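Work Package 4 report. The design task specified in the project plan requires that, given a folded chain encoded as structure tokens, an amino acid be chosen for each position. We show below one input record used in the internal validation round.
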């Protein structure tokens, strides 16, 4: 699969969540000699630029710091009102998408069929019931690709960091092929977009090794004991993650538990969030590092994103609860 000629594309978009796999994807492209002046990082802000609800506030600033270090432009995109807006949707259409572009902010959608959620996304591999991934990430990226005429009549490589090791569902993903937004055979709006998952076959050890080689500091949740960077309050959270999140962000955790009561439906099938967290143990790294806990909750990134004294974070090779 390494015969893919990254230099044959006019643009290379790296979807960067800030998680280790997407960072490794970026670094691997640099290893492959991808032209930096044709690269861009896209990051989907799941809280829609509003107050922190589902995500780590430090994630978006970390991605910005990473982009700035490698001198690659970074464009944010988000669903208006974020995931909170979709979870609380009551008799209205799914909100519009906003995306940053070289030509300014673009807004699309928001006029679809009316509908109601008033429940959390289901813990399921199916993206229709686990609607958060589509609402906050997949559909947002598609909308951003379709909304920008600069992708017409040119070749775009859209690169993401899913790995087979993460789940049987992800193991079935193709490493390379036309992206959903590809219209290369269209006469009217012809857009060639290939989707490439270069680290699909990589092990976790290989992922950490490339971060270490470049000296890239893993973002803060890894240093607090989390094995994957998902939304902070991801519906796939383990019992230990729930206990740790209740410890780190008690008000936000309590707000989700209050929503469970309001919806009459829990996030986890088996029990409510508080009972779920009661079954877990707070990560030792989170207990030991209140300074890192505080930084993880800030809407800014302090200092460089690379270091000459790289250390494996506490969450490495630990629990890998997260989206399937
Ligand atoms: S990280 Fe978890 S909560 Fe966030 S969109 Fe993905 S599955 Fe949903």
């Amino acid at each position: 699969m390494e015969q893919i000629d990254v230099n044959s594309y006019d643009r290379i978009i790296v979807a960067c969540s800030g998680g280790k796999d997407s960072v490794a994807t970026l670094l691997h492209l640099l290893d492959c000699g991808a032209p930096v002046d044709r690269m861009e990082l896209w990051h989907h802000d799941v809280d829609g630029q509003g107050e922190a609800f589902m995500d780590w506030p430090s994630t978006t600033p970390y991605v910005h710091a990473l982009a700035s270090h490698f001198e690659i432009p970074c464009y944010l995109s988000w669903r208006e009102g974020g995931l909170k807006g979709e979870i609380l949707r009551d008799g209205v259409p799914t909100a519009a998408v906003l995306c940053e572009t070289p030509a300014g902010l673009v807004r699309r959608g928001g006029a679809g069929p009316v509908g109601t959620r008033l429940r959390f996304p289901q813990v399921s591999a199916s993206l229709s019931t686990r609607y958060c991934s589509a609402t906050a990430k997949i559909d947002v990226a598609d909308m951003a690709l379709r909304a920008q005429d600069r992708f017409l009549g040119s070749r775009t490589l859209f690169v993401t960091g899913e790995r087979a090791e993460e789940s049987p569902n992800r193991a079935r993903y193709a490493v390379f092929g036309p992206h959903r937004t590809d219209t290369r055979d269209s006469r009217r709006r012809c857009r060639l977009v290939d989707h490439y998952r270069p680290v699909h076959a990589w092990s976790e050890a290989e992922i950490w090794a490339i971060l270490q080689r470049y000296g890239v500091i893993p973002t803060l949740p890894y240093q607090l004991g989390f094995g994957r960077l998902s939304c902070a309050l991801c519906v796939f959270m383990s019992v230990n993650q729930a206990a740790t999140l209740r410890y780190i962000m008690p008000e936000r955790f309590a707000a989700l538990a209050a929503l469970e009561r309001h919806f009459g439906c829990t996030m986890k099938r088996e029990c409510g969030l508080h009972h779920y967290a009661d079954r877990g143990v707070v990560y030792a790294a989170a207990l030991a590092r209140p300074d890192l806990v505080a930084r993880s909750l800030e809407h800014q990134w302090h200092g460089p994103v690379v270091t000459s004294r790289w250390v494996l974070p506490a969450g490495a090779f630990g629990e890998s609860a997260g989206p399937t």
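The longest strand covers residues 39-44. Validation will be extended to a larger panel in the next phase.
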